[in-house]
Structure prediction request, 710 residues.
Amino acid sequence: MPVNFTPGPSQLYFTVEDHARSAFRQGIPSLSHRSRAFEKISKQTTEGLKELLELPEGYHVLFTGSATEIWERSIQNLVTESSLHFVNGSFSKRFHEIATQLGKQAHKVEVPAGQGFENYQPIGNPEVIALTHNETSTGVSLPLDFIHSFRTHHPNALIVVDAVSSLPYPKFDYTKIDSVFFSVQKCFGLPAGLGVWIVNERCIAKAESLQQQGVNIGTYHNLPTLISNAKKHQTPETPNVLGIYLLGQVIGDFLRKGINTIRKETEYKAAILYQALHQHDKVKPFVVERKFQSQTVLVAETGTATSQIAEQLATHGLQPGDGYGERKKSQLRFANFPTHSKEAYELLVDLLEKM
Amino acid sequence: MPVNFTPGPSQLYFTVEDHARSAFRQGIPSLSHRSRAFEKISKQTTEGLKELLELPEGYHVLFTGSATEIWERSIQNLVTESSLHFVNGSFSKRFHEIATQLGKQAHKVEVPAGQGFENYQPIGNPEVIALTHNETSTGVSLPLDFIHSFRTHHPNALIVVDAVSSLPYPKFDYTKIDSVFFSVQKCFGLPAGLGVWIVNERCIAKAESLQQQGVNIGTYHNLPTLISNAKKHQTPETPNVLGIYLLGQVIGDFLRKGINTIRKETEYKAAILYQALHQHDKVKPFVVERKFQSQTVLVAETGTATSQIAEQLATHGLQPGDGYGERKKSQLRFANFPTHSKEAYELLVDLLEKM
Prediction:
């Protein structure tokens, strides 16, 4: 089977199939979600994640159906009136649209696809600042300093970070972030069908205050309900039990490998591909400024050579992701997740250099 | 491994592990949800389900994270002001509570646990009539005639049926139902993490009218968005691709077996267990009236013998489900899903008769 570089669902982490086989052998897919055995699995996954991301005390791990759901739930639970969104691609744009659809005053700072943000001057008094750490559609990553600066600009705002296609790579300073979320089919290399939402006590207090004001914060997946269940290592609904188990197992694999090793390998693979793209005469990186170049989703401007490059890579067992939306036929995207080996990246670079 | 009679998550359908292995072999868990291959899988699942349930034209199959989500989405999308709920157990009660939490005038007709409804006299002008075909907490099933009678009583209302733990067993007259839903970890014997929501054109029109009135019907999972994606065999978010594939495969197995055979086997197994319970001197069926006795979740009033019976069954490899909630220590529940073989039921009955 080819190595799948599409940025999610992507190549499975190489241990997942074995973990799935073991799950079936242990009867995990038919486990009651109200059993002790499930609570143990849920605890192992959330505690493993807290260790992997080095989350401080007071940060909680919650499970949803998708990261898309978390866009909706976070606005619904954290915003009475207004949010401020940084929009530079299709996914940050969708997050903003969801806030608008929910009837909030959703303000935005917008730059064209492929760009990041410079010289932000605080505006207004938004309740939530919504930042997309890694724009999967364009391969733009926001520098951590930029993300961490909002605590100073807006001390009263909740800083909500979409890290769908970057975690666990970024080493966030969580004291400067109130909520972060991801979906398991990106860097964790798992089958899709599970979103992971991390919130701190400020988020919970805010949701409770909305609830007391009579604002509709949803039902089974409002924050107070999610939290009261999570404290018992439970979920309000019957969740994706198999997905939670597999996530816990892959987190265990990541912990054994070491987050520093994962980060270094990610940077090595990104460095060799960006170098090849910068030096190439037919293709170039879509994101020009190095400080905005994503380490986990690398986008190549391949122009009229797109289909030819994709076909040549395919003959060597490498399947790049299409460009996103209107750039489908002029770009290729390469996921650089923990499952993508150095060897696969070296082969990719070798092949590109020869084209 | 023991035969798991808990009513969901329950015993996996016996083909699921093989289908999962085949899915991994085909790369399905890492398939892009925007690919043709995914559309084909999604189409196979929805068309198979339409065939299995004999859905008329104009009924659409939608995917959510859970059936719990469908409680919320159905109220959010179908009710401007008022709904009417038939409450006779924990799950029908929760459906009613969700409508209340969403700020609707949620009226209810309530009877004690273990009972059904008699002699309904039409009241008010609810926009939605919410019926729980099979109360998983008590083993009460509403007769089909009762469910089908609401079209006459309330021609303008949308008839919404929770069939979480009964489909595909009941042979509904869909011309008298506007929406029905289930979750895959019950009768379909699949790993949890997927809800299936069936709606007709009246539901879509209603949701669109709410949207036009400025009522908040949610964002990525509002009905118009779900429908416009479903028409392309797509989903708004990255869905549980593996779950949708596995559902399609099990539906294929059910179709090959034949829905009539599945229904007859279900009735045979239910008949022998109810007979044993009726004739037993230490235990009896919790649901006394035969017309309300569920065919898919059978509840035994086991009183002080509960733990003893559970232990004896366990020594023979049979794992009953606990009673629900406050009846945890005085009842046992037995799922009677297509995966529970006639042989397993015959063994269960033999063992019970000897106790």
